[in-house]
Amino acid sequence: MSGQSQRLTVVPTVTMLGVMKARLVGATRGHALLKKKSDALTVQFRQILKKIVSTKESMGDVMKTSSFALTEAKYVAGENIKHIVRENVQTASLKVRSRQENIAGVKLPKFEYFMDGETKNALTGLARGGQQVQACRAAYVKAIELLVELATLQTSFLTLDEAIKTTNRRVNALESVVKPRLENTIMYIKGELDELEREDFFRLKKIQGYKRREVERQREASKAYAEEKLAEDMSLQRGVSINAAHNMLSQAMHKDEDIIF
Questions:
Q1: pLDDT, tens digit, for every residue of 156-165?
Q2: Of 58, 93, 173, 178, which is most buried by a Cβ count within 10 Å?
Q3: Cβ proximity of 110 and 98 under 8 Å
């Protein structure tokens, strides 16, 4: 893109030059701040990505362990264990709540699990398999903990990805569009002001020359008038014509010049 197309349409004045310089300073500061924000978000983004990878790797082992524990509980307590568990559970003891965490101006959702009330070991009195059912429950609680953590990481990952893209677009716009346009406008205003200064200087020189010629013309007119007056006075005193008086004055002036030189 050429500088002409990137230049703002402004009136080249000193006031506008100050305004453009102030806008350039603001754009430079904004670019630096957005660049720092983008770097901070990128660092946090990479940390979350590492945590997601490690959590998913451990998630496979936990889900495998919990599924195996469920199979053991069904084998020991029988296939009807699902109905017995539903009859003994009235309200959920493991719950999830959400809050927001501020990272470089970006609000990331964060999920947390918590135990609501005391955990009752109502299934330990079963004729068989009560202990195995409790082990299965503990395995699935651990799986839920990892799922809640993974949900937090995945949501934060998507939110940070969108925030980084938006911030990078703003950084690129300031760096590639706004700042070059302001710089070209400042150069254009400076060039126009310099041209106006040169025009003013040339105008002043012309005015001075005109005044000097006018002064010389008035001086020559005054000199001619004085000579004419002197010639008239000489013609009256000596009784000669005006032309003869002029000739006598010219000869006298030539003699004075010869004496000087």
A1: 999 999 999 9
A2: 178
A3: yes
pLDDT in tens, 123-182: 544 555 667 777 787 888 888 888 888 888 999 999 999 999 999 999 999 999 999 999
So where are the chain's domains? 3-193
| pTM of the predicted protein model | 0.62
CATH of domain 3-193: 1.10.287.3240
The DSSP letter of residue 175 is: I
Contact status, residue 16 vs residue 193, Cβ threshold 8 Å: no
